[in-house]
Amino acid sequence: MRDLPITLLRTFVMVAETLNLTVAAGRLHRAPSTISMQLSRLEDLMTTTLLERGQYGVRLTPAGELLRSHAQQLLNLHDRILGSFQHADIDGKVRFGTHDQYAARSLTPLLEAFVLNYPQARLEVFCDHRSQHLLSLLREGKLDLALVELPMLSDGGQRLDRDELVWVRSQTHMTHLRDPLPLAVFVDGCSHRNAACQALEKGDRPYRIAFTSQSRAGMLAAVRAGIGVGVIPRKTLEPDMVVVEQGLPPLPKTDTCLFVADQINEATTRLAQTIEQSPQFTHTGPVFCRRLAV
Predict the structure, then answer these.
(1) Within 13 A of 29's CA, how many CA atoms are on the CB side?
(2) Would you tell me how many other CB atoms lie within 10 Å of the CB of residue 204?
(3) Which residues contact 197 (CB under 8 A, 6 or more apart)?
């Protein structure tokens, strides 16, 4: 019986997640040709076709779907075993604050990897839509790390990525044509909400707050129902959302920044490094001071 190399399985799982060889290659820091060769080798070992390649990406075959589930379980067990031996001495509490748009999307594989690799660490995650509130908790010593979204070129923190806010509506509702414009936004204190209101007021576009929510899922549910137009970062766009490119004022660019408290334990340092080094973030542009300016 042939063994399945862990490296090949990691590559396959990343491709299965992104359904794009180029994107997967970027996240794995490998050339697309290397990714393609690894997939071919895995298919040879499995003696079946796992992926069907097309003009706009790849899709999993039924065999590929089956392997994806088994491969993820095997990788999790592999990482948990290694973590139990290699990082058994790294423990302590890690208090991490972030927006749920990160916790539910780009951070999911990072936090999963951290938990598996550092099983003795006690991770506590606090989600809040208010970036300044999270930073105030960091200043007060109630958080160790904060991954937040700030207006472009804000002071402090290490910038990991740059994005822009966009107006979104559902595919089936022309909500953006209503007057006054109904908005589905986070509750007061959210930078997305503030940016939207300021842009509309500057452009003399009447609007009303039609729906408020503490969570991204709730806000997007209202957008899908046609209750209001939403505001989200472009890179977090859902497949069934339509970006409103015309008729509404432009929205500002944003920076995703990581803030680290002055006094942290080794487990917190490892999580900060996991986030900083992740291919989930593009690391474009200048790097700012990593420590929080009090």
Answers:
(1) 6
(2) 7
(3) 183, 207
Tens digits of per-residue pLDDT, 227-255?
999 999 998 888 889 999 999 999 999 99
The residues, any chain, with a CB within 8 Å of residue 158's CB and separated by 6 or more, are 257, 258, 259, 260, 276, 287, 288, 289, 290
Q: List residues bridging with 148 in a β-sheet.
A: 257
Task: Measure the CA–CA gap between 160 and 258, rounded to whole angstroms.
Answer: 7
Q: CA-based Rg of the chain, rounded to a whole angstrom?
A: 21
Q: How many CB atoms lie within 10 A of CB 194?
A: 15
State how beta strands 241-243 and 158-170 pair: antiparallel
Beta bridge partners of 168: 230, 243
| Residue 253, number of CB atoms within 10 A of its CB | 14
For residue range 45-54, what is the model confidence (pLDDT) as tens digits? 999 999 998 7
Give yes or no for a cis peptide into 151 (omega within 30° of 0): no
Query: What percentage of the chain reaches a pLDDT higher than 70?
Result: 92
Q: How many Cα atoms sit within 13 Å of 6 on the Cβ side?
A: 8
Q: Which residues of 227-252 are buried (b: 16+ CB within 10 A; e: fewer)?
A: bbbbbbbebbeeeebbebeeebeebe
- Burial track 270-282 (b if 16+ CB lie within 10 A, e otherwise): bbbebbeebebbe
Other CB atoms within a 10 A radius of the CB of residue 56 amount to 7
C-alpha dihedral over 253, 258, 259, 262, to 10 degrees? -150
Structure-token pair, residue 213? 């929510």
